[in-house]
Amino acid sequence: MSDPVSEDTGGGGRRLGRSVLVLPTLFTVGNLFCGYYAILSTMNGLYSHAAYAIGIAIVLDSMDGFIARLTHSTSAFGLQLDSLADVISFGIAPSVLALVWGLGPVDPRLAWIAAFTFTICGAMRLARYNIQAGNLKHFVGLPIPAAGGTVAAIVHFFGGRVTGVPAASLMAAVVFALAFLMISTLRFSSLKHVALGKKSHLAVVVMGLLVALIFYLSRPTLLALAGVYVLSGPAARLYSMLRRRKPVEEEAASDPR
């Protein structure tokens, strides 16, 4: 006769295992819901709500991957579902938000092309990410959550809908730039490999200050964070090119011929 306590423990372990597997999916579904809500908010003229929803989707998207790695519950199904949610939340929702909020004054054809370019480049970025090896120290191309978050940060910073042609033209240029950065070969840091290290107390202080700034001065802080991350890829490439060029120039200068 088997031990009833052991049987109950085994059943509880199986239930716990299933719960662990479901937990990252719940965050992914929350990410998808935020993207859907952002689209509906944009259609109803609630642009700030749409920007907030995209920001929350970024947090949920980072949490589902973190929890999946922490609980060793990563799966091919979860990866595909996460990518589909990201297409909605960071591909379609930001492009619709940019189209309705910031591209109205420009030529409608240019506005549609800019918004669709953002969406298709975001989908291509996700497809490339899915076939790359995991645990990369750097992202190749601007991650789609960062691109979508930049659009949301711009809307959150300026608030009211764009009405002037110069501002709308600048917004179209930003949308095109984000789109092409997503499919570029520029390297962007992967924050999931950031460790506290020896100076952990300083890192904690910096993170605390960032949280306080986001809470009290969310508009300039979020826009600055998005801008710094987007520009980090081109800046790193430029720095690398200058470093490679300097030894060549020094060698040419030291050549007596």
Protein structure class: mainly alpha
Total DSSP E strands: 2
Strand order of the biggest β-sheet: 1-2
- Supply the CATH architecture: Up-down Bundle
CATH class membership:
Mainly Alpha
Low-confidence stretches: 1-10
Radius of gyration: 22 Å
Look at the structure and name the CATH superfamily: CDP-alcohol phosphotransferase transmembrane (TM) domain
**Main sheet characteristics:** 2 strands, antiparallel
Tell me the helix content: over 70%
Chart the SSEs and their pairings.
Layout: H1 4-43, H2 47-70, H3 76-102, H4 108-131, E1 138-140, H5 144-158, H6 165-182, E2 187-189, H7 200-216, H8 218-254
Antiparallel strand pairs: 1-2
Note down, in words, how this protein is organized.
With 257 residues, this protein is an all-alpha fold. It has a single domain, classed as Four Helix Bundle (Hemerythrin (Met), subunit A) (Up-down Bundle). Helix content is 79%, strand content 2%. It has helices at residues 4-43, 47-70, 76-102, 108-131, 144-158, 165-182, 200-216, 218-254, and strands at 138-140, 187-189. Helix 3 (76-102) packs antiparallel against helix 4 and helix 3 packs parallel to helix 5 (144-158). The protein is globular. Residues 1-10 have low confidence and may be disordered.
